[in-house]
Amino acid sequence: MWQIGEAAAKVGVAVSALRYWDERGLVAPAGRKAGARWYGDEEMHRLAAVKLLQDTGMMSLDEIAAIVGGRSRGDWRAAMKSRLAEIRAQRERLAAAEGFLEHFLRCPSEKPIVQCPRMRDYTDRALRDDEAG
């Protein structure tokens, strides 16, 4: 068993974070002794999981609560599927941005936004798609 200060240090968060997670229902302590929160092995693993998911920066505490809270099988799976779809979409946007930036750096034009044929083709297609939509 770990007292709240020890648990917080082991997981790498402030004691106030553990109290907040407890208030939000993410992870409850195994028990209390003399008013202090104590965490057992199972709670420590849940705390570490919350920290890991939070460190990704890709999940809200509500989504994390659905995953670690075990409310129902469908809740956490739906949260994971939704977040995974968002991450994949973001990865596609980042890859496109990376491609444009690399092209701009290699482009011999001094004003690639207005002079580059590849960029002009892309913006023409984007404008056509917008008119069609």
Automatic annotation (TrEMBL):
Pfam families: MerR_1 (PF13411)
HTH merR-type domain mapped to chain residues: 1-70
Keyword Ribonucleoprotein: no
Source species, domain of life: Bacteria
UniProt cross-references to SMART domains, sorted A to Z: HTH_MERR (SM00422)
InterPro entries: DNA-bd_dom_put_sf, MerR-type_HTH_dom, MerR_fam
Keyword terms: DNA-binding, Repressor, Transcription, Transcription regulation
Chain segments annotated as coiled-coil in the UniProt record: none
Protein name: HTH merR-type domain-containing protein
